[in-house]
Amino acid sequence: MNRRAKDRQQRGADEADYEFVEEAEAQAPAPPRPPRAAAAAGVRLYEAQEADAGLRLDRFLAACAEAAGEALSRTRLQGLIEDGRVRLDDAPARDPKTKVRPGQRVSVDVPEAAPAQPLGEAIPLTVAYEDEHLIVIDKPAGLVVHPAAGHESGTLVNALIAHCGDSLSGVGGVKRPGIVHRIDKDTTGLLVVAKTDAAHQGLAALFADHGLTLPLEREYRAVVWGAPTRARGTVDAPIGRHPSHREKQAVVNAQRGRDAVTHWEVEERFAGAEGALVAALLACRLETGRTHQIRVHMAHAGHPLLGDPLYAAGFRTKSAHLTENARAALAALGRQALHAARLGFQHPVTGEWMEFESEPPADMQALLAALRG
Question: Catalytic site residue 52?
Answer without folding.
Answer: no
